[in-house]
Structures are given as structure tokens and as C-alpha cells.
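Teaching note: in complex prediction, the entire set of molecules is handled at once rather than each chain in isolation. The prompt given to students was simply: 'Predict the structure of this complex.' The entities are:
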Amino acid sequence: MPLNPAWKKVLVIGSGPIVIGQAAEFDYAGTQACKALREAGLEVVLANSNPATIMTDVKMADLTYIEPLLPESLARIIEKENPDALLPTLGGQTGLNLAMELERRGVLKKYGVDLIGCNAETIYKAEDRDAFKETMLALGEPVAESTIVTTLDEGKSFARSQGFPLIIRPAYTLGGTGGGIAKNSKQLEEILHRGLQASPIGQCLLERSVAGWKEIEYEVMRDDADNCITICNMENIDPVGIHTGDSIVVAPSQTLSDVEYQMLRSSSLKIIRALGVNGGCNVQFALNPVSREYVVIEVNPRVSRSSALASKATGYPIAKMAALLSVGFTLPELTNPVTGHTSACFEPALDYVVVKFPRWPFDKFPAADHRLGTQMKATGEVMAMERTLEGALLKAARSLEIGSVGLRIAASGGWTEMEIEDKLASTDHERFFAIAEAFRRGWTSLEVQMLTQIDPFYLAKIKELVSLERRLQGEPLTSELLRLAKVKGFSDLAVAKLTGRTEEAVRNLRMELGIIPVFKTVDTCAAEFASATPYYYSSYEEEDEGEVTSGPKIVVLGSGPIRIGQGIEFDYCSVHALMALQGAGVEAIMVNNNPETVSTDFDTADKLYFEPLTVEDVLHVLHKERADGVLVQFGGQTAINLAGRLEGAGVKIFGTPVDSIDLAEDRERFAELLCRLGIPQSEGRSVTSITQAATVAEELEFPVIVRPSYVIGGRAMQVVYTLEELEDYLRRAIYLSPEHPILVDRYLDGKEVEIDAVSDGETTVIAGIMEHIERAGVHSGDSLAVYPPQSLTPSEIDQIQDYTCRLAAGIGIRGLINIQFVVVRGKVYVLEVNPRASRTVPILSKVTGIPLVNLAVQVALGKSLQELGYKHGLAPEMPYVVVKAPVFSFEKLTKVETSLGPEMKSTGEVLGMDTQFGHALAKAFAASRIPLPQDGSILVSVAEKDRPEAITLARQLSQLGFGVKAIGDTAKALALCGVEADVVSESSQALQEAIRQREFSFILSTPTKGTTPEHTGYLLRRLAVEHGVPCFSSMDTAKAVVRALQEIRSQTKPQVLSLQEYLA
Amino acid sequence: MKAALVLETGKVFMGESFGASGETRGEVVFNTGMTGYQEVLTDPSYAGQMVCMTYPLIGNYGINKQDDQSEKVQVQGFIVKEAALNPNHWQLEKNISRTLAQAGVVGIKGIDTRALTRIIREYGVLRGVITTRLEHLNEITAKLKTWQVPENVVADVSTKKIYTLPPTESEKGSFHVVVMDFGIKKNILQAMQAQGFQLTVVPYNTSAEQILKRRPDGVFLSNGPGDPKCVQAGIETIRNLINQCPIFGICLGHQLLSLALGGDTYKMKFGHRGGNQPVQELETKRVTITSQNHGYAISEDSLAQTPLYVTHRNLNDQSVEGVKHQDLPVFSVQYHPEAGPGPSESLYLFDEFAQLMQEWRAQHAS
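The expected output is the structure of the full assembly:
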């Protein structure tokens, strides 16, 4: 059956902000879906609160609502738009949960909206633990013995009958939030309590642990005529026990016999048929490594992170097809878009190995618990393809940008045997490197297998790599040995380190010997059919099949894995750069390694190279393509960091020249420039000893900002207020030495603002100014930010405009520039300049309608902004307000200090949009999943310096009808000023109990000093996160909350307008 | 040890020898299955052929005792990118290299199998030689061009004597099926045993008279290697079986059935070999993903002069995948519903065969 004629207008739900467990993959899925549905002639209405996405671009849907993904806002959109159908399966767990809630509230029925892709019953059967178990048992599909519990006691009694270990999985949570494996009753109590809290319906599944079994996933598709296909299966190298999002995954499975492969495939088809999904579905199995016994672990009746991976791994566009199937098309009616001439109803055959490697945020959170388990902790992932498993593994490892060289990380050589054993046994995130280190020290495969339960097939591969390391260290580097090293995935740098050469020397030797990679096509069919798709990976093989055109072409470097500080916004910029190049008649070539993104969709660029973003790998692409040059300003710091060496290798850098990039990034050169231009900046020096630091700090006056001038294991930037704090910081900066200075800057206590502009050297167009709500000292990525600015004076705006224009010209920007300023008592200081795309480019592009990236590309190609019709200076303000709010994933990262500071901690962001500031602010909070409390009590515990402000705030909250409670000195201060506040005991046990009992609607807790975990404030903030109580660690955020609370109670109503309507 | 793969086009791939050393020649074909190399190696339909696996890592789970499709390794040569040195699996018996060596089958690894596949896709199936004797490579091409692919391969792989197999599933209806063995895979026999059939397996050249003497409820026509037109004895037998009992054919058996009824077959450019071929049943529009291994196909035009009509079609190239007799309980499919390797979702065809035998028995009860 083709398109169902009953559905003309479809509402698509996005997945909202990036959080751990739900990342860029849903932008990829949603974007594909929107495109496919519109191509099929449907009108698409999109709701998503995440402004950094491609899918929320004004051209992706007919109408785009950047609104909170909450049932109330969705209901308002449905009421206004009256869509015929709602497609929830492209928006991750958020989409499904919302659909269920709208169904439950009767909204869908009321407005006659059909749920498509999968119905409420399907969602219920797959998501509700009890229903899932029943469904599987009815099908005769095995599940691990389990029980559903809603109380601790039920859990304990199950444990008595089953014994340990037990797996705890909260119902309806994403990325396994709140789950874990309990090995004893104490752990059970702890995890189960957290899990029950995390589950929106207070329900957890306790199940027999099959930890150590093989974890296998199948991506399945089904159409309305009941045709079913599997797109891909995947095997986790890490056996059951580590969340699949935190596992190293290979596709296709490597260690399953055909009988096992088909057994699980048949089971997957049976399950998707029984659930009646129209579209994509993910089925996860645990397979006993020594028999055919298996259990179904989980089913996701929607596209997922795994399906994005499967799409990129095979080339088969699952999300696009899923969207088409949801509106009635059947698989045999559709053509395989990759070959362009065979049927879409088939199963891809791979002739290469795919490896996915997770990217964890522990570099940013050294204090976090680094052990992996059933709760996902990775923020992103990379994928690599090669014709050997080893090659794919090492390509993936170097794509992570964690400083690994081959199978080593900086620390691995220094680990003790105990540490290695611990890393292997406790599923540490560095386990992969620990395995290699163990083999390096002569451990046997059996020993490693006992500790890790990883299949000996994989361990043998790693062991072989270690033997090869040894050969490289001990033997002359012959052509054969070098070739073998390359086939097995070693980078030039790795070979260089092992053979005592420089990377350049290895590269030159390789070129002399003609050892260069060829490029192979990803075609879904293992070369059985000719394919139209320009999707390539490199391999040290014989035949190169990439065809190269002779026209103008430019390579865009992507931003690699999603990590804290470098998120989906850079993918947005990369995608727009590709589109701009295409618009300018230039062949647009993408190099990236992130399988979750739109930029690595095979039909985004003219050509896609799925490669690590290293100089070596990028040069291969550039030489192969004989490209005119590269664009580095859109792929975040990843791409910018390659600029210098690429230029050194003779590559033309389009846009801002390398020297200008250096001018902006080199502190000394930059300070000189500011001095020459007469632009003020905060004072600072670099110091190499504790005494020197103390002198400088006294001179600059506390507080000061301190940070290392180089990056080591996540040592963060910090604001220090006292000499004691400074000394404490420096003592922990263990590598302080003349070679590794620490930078001490005066901390300017003012308003932080930032701009995004595009410049051609003469004309500089400032799209807008975003004013941060938190004062300087909180990382811009973690601040609430508002456009247009709400409290800047005309003179301040003038200064910002003037400095921006002069800086752009002075640095020699040809393209994008982002500047962060701090405004102190009417005076504007420059904090930082980024000669590249920034986190706020997508937001400002969207809300001002100024296509920043497009302009930057055109400028890079030689056009002037004037001829493009743009005027010098700040663009006119738009008549509405947007507030960007950060979103954190602290609940997944146990032990992390949650208070805000100069080091970024958020994983994603949302946008609140309205004609009034207060409503925009309230929407931003709502969208960032901080439900603003209507009543109840606030707990106040703030640092001494914040008390005066806290007193005012407490008064306002009291007037709004909230109860005020306080701890210790804060309570005393409030009492002194006559604010009535209940005193709460400071003892950690009492606090824990009070928070558990939900005695506080929200908490205001600002950090005093240091970040040492034993502090009451730290404990309070962690407890709040773990129990889902909103907690604010900055006075400014708290003030904004109060403002939003006041607004919500005002008479005016929030707007329900699409982006298109705002811009009209 | 170094080895070379030489094609009739003159192209030479250098690689390393694995399995037996020496020299072997045959038709080079490719298989796109990502698992199931053991089933491929032992599938008699590959007799005379050198199989190139498109998936680069072969032998990861080794070779076990259970998954063989016949008594021996059947391929003429084996071409892979990488043959696992350290396989691991709970059923593991030996690694693939040792298996080939024991079977005396020459293998070559370290080949850019994708490049080879692209050549086959371009030129069609090619004659080739794998050799560890590298000194006379240039002579090989000339010899290959004049070399004739052996014709009567079925005779080599078919059973020499008649044997019987009991049903393994006794609760299902019991039928006696005579199986014409043109090179049958074990999984087909097992699938029918599991269907409750009592099997009598007979050589490919058994006459219809001899078969009917055994009073079968139905006759099954097996898969097998090579050009169906070379199996004249089998075609003759099938012709004489029509209207005598229900008949079900798979792969070569399917082609032979058409030939017996006046249809024609042709050699495909590079055939279908793998576990991902989409086949649509025309009546229901339902698609199943099938396991296939054939280099010949039924010419659809030729069916006009026969009592057969097309029931299944390949969605990729529209080739004929299944036929049925207009009046009689006679049908066949080009693909392998028994799986092993490949998807098992077409097993229901054995049910249909049972159904036909049931009806036939009812009609002919005397």
C-alpha cells in the first residue's frame, strides 16, 4: 500500500536536548524523516526544543516549533495545528514517552490524531517491563527470570529467592538511567532506591544477571504488509554488563555461527511482527557464550542510537525508510537509495568491519565514577570502517581524540599490575587500553578473559597487535613490516613512536614505498551491484574505487564525537557549510567519524569520507580528491587544531588564515593585538611556582581565575577567592613547572555577553548579542543566555560592536568569529575570541534568519559581505526573545560536582522562545527538564559572599508563597535579616532523608570553595541530582527562576508560534 | 607461502596460501554471506567452483561438527581476505585452514576480495586458477581460456546408492518422499525429516519407474551444481514423474523441473550467492529474504510454452524465483528455504509440500 491518503499533515516529535543516552542520533533520524515525509508530499510540523539541531532549521519542516517537549506544550501545538498524525518514533525515548502521555490524556483522541510508526499498545508492550515480559513469554521468546518491583521490600524478597548478582532496570528511562548491577543487598538497596526514583512510574525490573554473555543487537524493519528485514546485527565486544552505549561494538557480529546468527534474526523478526511496529525496531539479546541459550534483553520499538549506527555502518537509511513505512509505504515499493536501482526490501551485506567506540566525558570529570555498567555514561561515539578488525579498532581509537597513540594512552605505561587488574575487572573506561597493556606485560589471554569475559577471538586480535608493536620496536622497518602495520591500523604516529622516528619520517617513508590507502565504497551489497552512493572509507587494500571529478571541490572537516564542550552545534555548522558549498557550485566533501550525525548521512555532502580526523587521515582524502583546500572553521576545535599542520603539508585553508587563527589562540600574541587595538581585557600572567602565583594573585587582587596553560587529565579552570584556595589548587596541579605554567587572570565580576559574527576583513556582520544570565565565571556553555540582551546600555552595545569589528579586522578573520566579553560597570572587556563557529551559531542563525555559516563559506570562497547584501555592524534586533538553557546529565555521572564554574559541564541545550522574556525564560526552564515548582519549600544554603542576594531572593520567594528552609550559617544570616526560615539539620543523614522525602521543591546551594567531595554543599547538590530535585548553584540562575515564577503567575499567556511565524 | 589467483582475463591477485598448497582451477564465484562459510564450503552445489567470500573475516568461529552440508568440503578453491588464525567458539573443532588442508582444498587469503567481486560483477563468472607455483603464471591465462568447465558435476556429488532417513518429528503427518539427489544439502534433508517425512534418497539418474515403485507420497528434486541442461537423465525422470505424485524442487531441482516441462534455462552473469536475496511471492506480495546459490536461472519467456507459471520473483533483478504447475501439485523455488546458511523464514514451503501430498493422498485414496 502506498501513502495513506488520510494523513496529509504529520507532527514529528524530536528528542530535545542532548543528554547522555540521547544524543545527535535523533537529529540525524529526525532530519531524515522530515525530508522523506516532505518528499512524499506531506506537510510536516516539527516540535523540538533543541536549537542546535539541523532538524529545527527553518527549511527542514513546514512548521517548526521550538517549544518544550512537554505534554502541555505539545497539546497546545496539536490544538493549533490539528495534524492528522503524530510520528513519535524518531524522537527517541522522549518521543515515545510524550506520545504515551498525550494518548493517556486523551489529547490524540480529542483532536483525531493517529499515532503512526507504532501505536500506544506497541509502546506499552515494549516499554512496560511487565507487559514486555508477558509479550515475550507469549511468543515463546526467552527472557531472563525477573520481577517487577515498586518497593524496596519487593526487591529484597526477589533477591532472597534468586540470589545475586541482579540487574536493576528502571522502567521508562533512557540510557539506563538509575540502573545498575547489584552484587549484594547493600548495593541492591542503593541502586533500587535510585532506580525507583528515576523511573517516571516508580517501577523497576529486577532480573537474573546474564553478565558475561555475548551482547548482540539486531536492527529490524517492518512494513504495514508485514514484510520484515534485518538491516544489520551488531556484537558488543564488551559482554553483557556494560550498557551497549558504553560498549565497543562491532558490526556485523564476528563470533556467531550462521546457526546462531539466524536463530537471533528469526527471533527479532518474530518480535517486531508481534509488536506490530511500522518502521524500525531494535532488539537486544544476551547469548550464552557456550550454548545456544539466549534471552531477549530489550526491545526499542523506534529508531535509536543503534539504528543510527546501523545506518552508517551499512549505508541503509533506516530513519528515512522508517518514516516512509510509518505513513503507509511498503518495503518492496521502495528502492534502495544507496544502489539506486535495487529493492529497499533486502538485507545489507557488509564487506568491511565496523567498530564503534564510545567517547566518555571523564576528561572533564576526573572525580566521576569511571566504572562502566548498565547506566550509560558516554556522551558520544565514533565509528570506523576497515577491511580488518584491527584496522577498524585502531581507526576508532584515534578518532576519539583522547591522546591515544595506537593501543596506548599517556598513562598506560605507568599503570601498576594491580591497576591493570582493577581496570580489567571493574569495567573501567580505559579497559581497552588496559587489555593491551596487560598483553604487553606478558599476561595470558586466559588471565585477561577471566577478568573481562571478553571473547578470546577479540583478545587474540589485541594480542596480535601487541606482538606487532614488539616487532616494530625490535625489527628493522622493512616495507613489508610497515605495510603490515598500516593494514592492522597503526597510525604513522604510532609507528613513529614504536620505531623511534618522527611522524613525518614515517609518512615520507610510506610515500616512497608507495604504501598508501585506497578508498572503498559503502554500498549495502558487498559490491554485488553497482552503487550510486559516494560514501567511502580508507583501507590498505589493492583497488581504489573512488572516482574523482575535475571540478572545484573543498573538504569540510567535521567535529568528531559529541563531547562536553563540542556538541551537535558543530555538526549543524558543518552541514550548513556543505550546503553552502553546493550552493556555490563547489563539490562539497565531508570528512567525519561520528555515526550519530547529519553530516555523516550519505546524501548530505557530495562525497562522504568516514575517517578519523587526524592530519594523516585527512591528508589521504585531500590527496585522493586533489581538493582545492579545506574549511576548518565549522568543525569545532577538532578541525581548527588540524589547520596548522595541514597548511604545513601544503593544503590551502579556506577562510580565516592559519596565522590569524594562531593570533587569536596564542595568548601572548593576542594580548599584544588587544593592546595595539586599545581594547581592554582582563589582566593575567603565567606563573611557574606557588610563590610567584601568590604574588601575582595579590597584585591582581582576588578573586582570580586559574587554569593550566596546557591540558592534563581534565584539570579544570577555577575561580579562586582566597590565597588558601589558590595554594590548594596549585598543589593539585602536580605538573606545575617552567615548561607547564599556570595562568592566573583577574576575575572580572560582571555580566558576560557573547556575539557571533561573520567578517570578510572589511565588513563584519554581527548577527546578535547573547547576554548571559549567570555572571562571568560560569562557562558560557553552562549559562542561561538571552537574545536580544535585556540589560545592556546603548553605550555597552556600541563598545561590543566596535570591538567586534576592530577585532575581526585586526585578526584577519575571513568567516566566523565568536567573542566573549565581560561588562563591568559600563566597561566592556574581551574574555576570549574563537576564530571559528561557536555553540551559539545555530541559535543566532535560526532566530535572526541570518545564515551565518552560509555567509562564512561564501566569504571563504572570496565573496564580500557587501555584495551578498549585508551591512557592517550589529544586525537589527528581532521583536521576540529567546533564552538558551543548558541541560546536564549529572544523574548519569555519579560523584560529579554539579555546581557551575568556568569548566563546562552541560551536555546539551534547549531554547525557550516567546515574545516576552519571562515566558521565554519559563519555557527554557521547562524545556531543560527543570519543572518550575508551583509551591512547597526552598532549601537555601549559600556561600558567605552570596548571602546578601540570598536574603532578597528568600523574601521574594516567601512573597510568592514558598516556604523557606535553610542550613547553618545561611539560616543564621536569614534570621538576622528577619527572613523567616526553618532551620534544617546539616548532618548528611538528615539531609539525605529530607531530600528523599521530597521536603524541598527546589534547592539553592552555591559552592563556597574548592571542589572537595566531602563538603556539605557538594553532598547536597549530588543528593538533589540523584533524587531529581531541581538545584541551582548560581545566584543568578536562582534569580532567573524567581523571575520566571513571577511571570508564570502573571496574566499574559505564552505564545504558541512556529519559528516560521516568528521570522515572518 | 605465497599464492596467486589468476583469472582468465589475465588479472593476477597475489596472496598467501592457506589450506592445501598446490594448484586448482574452477569457476570463480562470490558469496555475500557474512556468516555460514562452513555451510558454503560443504554445499555440493559449489562443486567445481572456487568461492570468493565478500566478507573479509572468514573462519572466526572455526569449523564445527554440526553445520556441514555434506560429507566433505565441496568447493574447488576458497578465496578470502583473512582466514582466522585464532578462532573461538564453543562448538569449535578445528580452524578453517586445517579443514581445507585435510580436505586437500587449495585456499588463498590476503586478497582484495572486493576488487575481485567487482571484476566478477563486471565480466561475469570467470575461470580462474589458484596456485602456489608462481613461476609459470603467465602460461596459466592462455590455458584457462581454452579450458572447459567440467559438465557432469552432478554425477560426482550425487549419492551412489539409495539410502533412507527416518522422520525426526513423528507428530507431524507421515509421508514418504523420494529425494532425487543432484547434490543435496544436509539441511534440506533435515528440514524434511523435521517435517515428519520418511525419506528415500536416490541417485540423480534413477528412473521414474524405479522411483514410483517405491510408492512415494511425493518426490523432491534437490539442489546441485552446474548447468541443468547437463543433467539429461534427471530431466527425463522428472518428465515421467509429472502427474504421478506431488513434486517439489529446490534450486537445480527447480531448473530441472522447468526443463522437463519444456522450459528453458540460461546462465546468469554472476548468479545469486548469499543470504540476503529478496523474493516476492506474487500472489500475496509478501517478501521473504532468502538464501541462494545458483548461477543458472529459468528463462521467463520460455514458460509460456509450459504448464508452469511464475509464483515468485527476485525483487532486485526480477528473475524467476518460483514456479507452479497450473493444474498439478508441482512447484519449485530457485532459493533455499532450508537455510543453512541464511534466513530460515521460508521453511513454510515444506509445510506446503506436505499439504499437497495430503491432498493428493486424499484424492487418490483407493
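Point out the following to students. Chain A has 36 helices and 40 strands. Chain A touches chain B through 55 residues (CB under 8 Å).
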